[in-house]
Amino acid sequence: MSLALLHTSPVHVPVFDALRDAHHPGLVVRHLVYEDLLGRAGALGPEAVAGDVEALVNRAVADGAAAVLCTCSTIGGVAEAAAVRLGVPVLRVDRPMAAAAVRAGRVAVLAAHPATLEPTRALLAQEAERAGERAVDVRTVLVDGAWERFEAGDQDGYLDLVAAAVDAVTDADVIVLAQASMAGAVTRSETRIPVLSSPRPGLDAAVAAAAR
Question: What is the DSSP letter of 30?
Answer without folding.
Answer: E
